[in-house]
Design a protein that fits this description.
The structure holds 2 protein chains of 2 kinds. Chain A is built from 11 helices and 10 strands. Chain A is an alpha/beta fold. Chain A has a domain at 1-79 and 191-257: P-loop containing nucleotide triphosphate hydrolases (Rossmann fold, 3-Layer(aba) Sandwich). In chain A, the strands form 2 sheets. Chain A has a 6-stranded mixed sheet, sandwiched between helices. In chain A, α5 packs across α6 and α6 packs parallel to α7 (171-188). Chain B is mainly alpha-helical. In chain B, α2 (40-79) packs parallel to α5. The chains are: A alpha/beta, B mainly alpha.
């Protein structure tokens, strides 16, 4: 279980997070949703101890990481895998070396590393042969999947953190990523936190959603609760998405020629309710 | 007036803060370089990058600078009838002073730009954070191998540079009717352990300077590609000027210690 308790964080006196609290239960996906600059990614950096909060507590399996020393923090991090925005793959290493990074660090035998790399590449839907390629030779979606494979191979963590995992991807690649996140939760029991500004992804993936605005938590609840929320900021934040869904549904119902172009087969239809 | 005092005060405070940050960073770099774990593969890679990558440019610069220096010395020595002392003066100027500084500046220009740009790009693409998140200390994996690599490469390059500089001087000496026998007699006479020591100690400090400045600039760069570009330029300028300042301080200290 992961818990944020009244966390405050600022950079050079500028508040980034103010009194943020939430709990992530085992095998759940918590989505941190909000516009750009609302402090979403800061939450992940605080959670892996890259930054230290000004006030409040961050508990990972009951242990307050704000009180942990560097060595203990390194141990706690082993229980978590993180997928950074745009993947953050090590560009001087091959795909295989990226995925087997922690195993290489721990000096595991080469054949064991190769086996693990092949296993996790297959698990994220990629061919094991791409292990010899360099990250820049892959598409954005493939890089993101390699980043997920790397996070999984990092000592098979119980907690996975995703920082804007679908940003900049085409709809098909984005869908593959969100399907993979759901698959990892439902079949492997991973606890996850996903930071995103994509409302469709939040509705699809989240068991619970926290909405941030200017560093403050303005909503906490299920996707259904979010859809029914009356808060003016929430309504304004969801409005473009609702309009897009309504317009798309209307086109689909009319069976117009652009329907196929807008919604390719396999792309899930978001279900915000209310306006469609 | 008050505003001016406040502005100067702020500026001084900022400079002192930077000096403090760099000093602490330098301390961390040195600590990382002396205590395990050591990343052997990265160390070898860095030695190769510094040594092989800088070899040609160091050789060329040393040969040309040595010959230029020899022309100046030979002309002046000819006026006093002491042309036979050319080897002596070439050893003193090349091994003690010009060789280490020239090699240091050439390597600083090349390595600081490379290190800062690489680490800056890694930082802006979250690779450094990823490394930390996966339990690796970037000081150990990225910074310490560069320091150790330069500690090995820079003295070797300095020796090669000094040698070529002295050899180049010999050829210039021939054009001023200084025989090779007479030239190398002077060289051998003054190529003493003390002179060699002076020339070999400086690169050790230059390596600390180059690694500290380049890594610190790279790891603290901000603002994407533009920020990395600015950091790279600053890194080269600070390292190059720093080499001259470090050379002065080292020379002063060594002379005092050796009682020269």
């Amino acid at each position: 279980m992961i818990e944020f308790r009244n966390v405050d964080f600022s950079i050079d006196g500028r508040p980034i997070l103010s009194n943020v609290s939430f709990v992530v239960q085992q095998r759940q996906t918590r989505v941190i949703l909000g516009p750009s600059g609302s402090g979403k990614s800061t939450i992940l950096r605080l959670l892996i101890g890259l930054w230290v909060p000004d006030a409040g507590n961050i508990l990972v399996h009951g242990e307050d990481i704000t009180q942990a020393g560097p060595d203990r923090l390194r141990e706690i991090r082993k229980a978590m895998g993180i997928v950074f925005q745009h993947g953050a793959l090590f560009d001087s290493m091959t795909v295989g070396e990226n995925i087997g990074y922690t195993l290489l660090e721990d000096k595991h035998p080469e054949d064991e590393i190769e086996e693990v790399v092949a296993k996790y590449l297959t698990q994220v839907g990629l061919h094991p042969e791409i292990g010899d390629r360099m990250p820049e030779e892959l598409s954005g979606g493939m890089q993101r999947r390699v980043a997920i494979a790397r996070a999984l191979a990092a000592r098979n963590p119980g907690v996975l953190l995703y920082d804007e995992p679908t940003t900049g991807l085409d709809p098909q690649s984005a869908e593959r990523i969100t399907d993979l996140i759901l698959h990892l939760r439902d079949t492997m029991g991973k606890t996850s936190i996903m930071v995103t500004h994509d409302i469709a992804d939040a509705f699809k993936v989240g068991n619970r959603i926290t909405v941030l605005n200017e560093g403050r938590s303005v909503f906490e609840g299920t996707p259904e609760d979010l859809n029914a929320a009356q808060d003016p900021f929430i309504a304004e934040f969801l409005e473009p998405f609702r309009k897009a869904v309504a317009a798309a549904c209307q086109r689909m119902d009319e069976g117009g020629p652009s329907a196929g172009a807008r919604f390719r087969p396999g792309t899930p239809r978001p279900q915000p309710g209310g306006t469609s | 007036m008050e505003a001016l005092v406040a502005a100067v005060g702020n500026r001084v405070r900022r400079v002192l803060e930077v000096v403090q940050d760099v000093s602490l960073f330098c301390y961390s770099v040195l600590r990382s370089a002396f205590f395990p774990p050591f990343y052997k593969h990265e160390i070898i890679e860095q030695i190769h990058f510094a040594l092989v990558g800088s070899l040609f440019i160091v050789m060329f610069s040393a040969l040309v600078a040595g010959q230029a220096l020899a022309i100046q010395l030979a002309r002046e020595l000819a006026k006093t009838g002491a042309k036979s002392e050319l080897g002596h003066f070439m050893v003193i100027s090349s091994v003690r002073a010009l060789g280490p500084v020239l090699t240091g500046i050439v390597v600083a220009s090349r390595m600081s730009a490379g290190i800062t740009a690489e680490l800056g790009a890694m930082k802006s693409s979250d690779q450094i954070d990823a490394m930390v998140a996966f339990g690796t200390d970037p000081m150990k994996r990225l910074v310490a191998p560069r320091m150790i690599g330069l500690w090995i490469a820079l003295p070797v390059l300095t020796i090669i540079g000094d040698t070529l500089s002295v050899i180049g001087g010999g050829f210039i000496g021939l054009t001023y009717h200084v025989t090779l026998d007479s030239y190398y007699h002077g060289v051998g006479k003054y190529l003493t352990p003390a002179n060699l020591l002076v020339g070999m100690i400086k690169p050790v400090f230059f390596a600390i300077l180059i690694t500290t400045v380049a890594c610190w600039k790279g790891l603290t760069s901000e603002g994407g590609a533009k920020g990395v570009g600015v950091a790279t330029t600053e890194s080269v300028v600070i390292s190059s000027v720093g080499i001259l300042v470090t050379d002065f301080i080292c020379t002063k200290l060594i002379f005092r210690i050796l009682g020269w």
